Amino acid sequence: MNLTKLTGVALSAVLMSGCLLAGCTQQQNADSDAGAQAAEEQATTRTVTDGNGQEVVIPAQVERVAPTMGALAQATEMFCAGNGKIAAASNNQISDAFKAVFTDYEKSNPNSYDSSSAEDLIAADVQVVYGPASMYSDEQLEQMRQAGIAVVTLNKLSTVDDMCDNFLTIGKILGDEEYARAQQFVEYYKQGIADAQQRASKLSDSEKHTVLQLNVSGDQYVCADDKDISNAYYEAVGAKNVAAGFDGAQSGQYRSVDAEQIVKWDPEYIITMNTKVKDQILSDTALADVAAVKNGNVYVCPTALYLWCVRSAEGALMTPWLGSVMYPDLYADQDMTKVLQDFYKDFYNTDLSDSDAANILSGVTSSGAGNPQGGQGGRGGRG
Predict the structure, then answer these.
(1) Per-residue pLDDT for 99 more than 90?
(2) Which secondary-structure segment (H or E) carries 318?
(3) DSSP bridge pairs for 55
(4) Confidence check: pLDDT of 15 > 50
(5) How many CA atoms lie within 13 A of 11 on its CB side?
(6) pLDDT score for 198
(7) Paired sense of beta strands 254-257 and 220-223, if any
(8) H-type helices in 46-146, by residue range?
(9) How much is the average pLDDT of 20-47?
(10) Element (H, E) at 214
(11) How sure is the predictor about 370, in pLDDT bands with cuts at 50, 70 and 90?
């Protein structure tokens, strides 16, 4: 064989091998770069599942959020435990009492940015917005998307389980420590329901009281049927909601009802939203013969930072309070003042005096936060 040819062939093989090796190296470098980029993205983002079961990409570290409902702002503050992360909120649902208890709120939202405004959310440099999607128009959602704001839809709000799922999702959005506190709260909430059910199991059907949740909207009475979250609390303590299945005209999330129907129902207990409505019920001559009115069993649902009978974290206090009002013998071992003070200490990190607890339990401190449809003296929606 010609030595020159042999040398040329060998040289070609070496060059080809070098090119192949170089190509492999380039590909390996490209793969490595892609892997590094993916790892970097994974380190800076994570995902949460929204109320529709959709995965939403959010920053790995979330420091600036915007709950779209007052009740979700309340839960956010509970889980943040003073490490203010609310950069915008529904201002008409943030009471002075809320600001007094959660002192970090005005530090994290010093400009009172409102979560209903896409412009405010962008100005506040919000990272994640959460709440019902119906709060925003398509145009607003596009503005937020363009600004890199993640939107986590939480639109299931009808049941205790719905609210607990929302609380856990909020905890996951906020971080590991906040999620642990959310888990602790959900356990407390559900245990309260279970405790009430256990006590109610001792009641015979004849011992179960009838109840009506009654409010005023404009110039008419409105009541909560069995689709309202409050019905779960009435059932848990062993009370019969006389408006269950009622098909009166829909008025917001309640049903309009007249005095004639209330007289027919003749509830033994009436739970209302504030002292003004209570006074109106007691002074309404058309209701004078209703058992609850005759026997002095018209009660104002307490409001600490939020009404207990609506979809809020303070709904966890509704069953022990209801039970102590309607079945005092079954709850003789329970001191409602201590229950409330423990709640403030454990979840608000705040000491509540005996006198303040007494005012809350009597209904006289109602701030209107969470008051449905405004009512009389109310300040906003049901969430």
Answers:
(1) yes
(2) helix 318-326
(3) 49
(4) no
(5) 6
(6) 98
(7) antiparallel
(8) 70-80, 96-101, 105-108, 118-123, 138-146
(9) 61
(10) strand 210-217
(11) very low
Q: Of 248, 202, 253, which Cα lies nearest the Cα of 227?
A: 253
- Residue 277: pLDDT band (50, 70, 90) is very high
Structure token digits, residue 182: 């959310």
Cβ atoms of 181 and 173 closer than 8 Å: no
- CA dist 263 and 333 (Å) reads 34
Angle 342-87-382 from CA coordinates, rounded to 5°: 60
Q: Which one-letter DSSP state was computed for residue 249?
A: P
C-alpha–C-alpha distance, residues 210 and 229, integer Å: 17
Evaluate if residue 169 carries a pLDDT over 70.
yes
Element (H, E) at 223: strand 220-223
| pLDDT for 20 | 47
E strands, 278-324, are 298-300
Any idea which residue has 């607890």 for tokens? Answer: 357
Query: Is residue 379 a contact partner of residue 316, using CB atoms and an 8 Å limit?
Result: no
Q: Delineate the domains of the chain, giving CATH numbers in brackets.
A: 47-189 (3.40.50.1980), 204-362 (3.40.50.1980)
Q: Which helix (H) or strand (E) holds 194?
A: helix 176-200
Q: What is the mean pLDDT of the chain?
A: 88
**Radius of gyration in angstroms for the set of CA atoms belonging to the chain, rounded to a whole number:** 29
Identify the pLDDT of residue 336: 97
Locate the DSSP E strands across 244-335.
Answer: 250-251, 254-257, 269-272, 298-300
Residue pair 70/132 in contact (Cβ under 8 Å)? The answer is no
What is the tens place of the pLDDT at every residue in 122-141? 999 999 999 998 889 999 99
Q: What is the pLDDT of residue 375?
A: 35
Which pTM was predicted? 0.84
Indicate if the pLDDT at residue 377 is higher than 50.
no
Does 246 have pLDDT greater than 80? yes
Structure tokens at 340: 């409330």
Do residues 234 and 321 touch, judged by C-beta distance below 8 A?
no
Beta carbons within 8 Å of 182's beta carbon, 6+ residues apart = 75, 79, 167, 168, 170, 171, 172
**Do residues 366 and 310 lie in contact, with contact meaning Cβ atoms separated by under 8 Å?**
no
Two tokens at 256?
């309009």
> For tokens 């209903």, what's the residue?
116
Edge-to-edge strand ranges of the sheet holding 65-67:
65-67, 128-131, 150-153
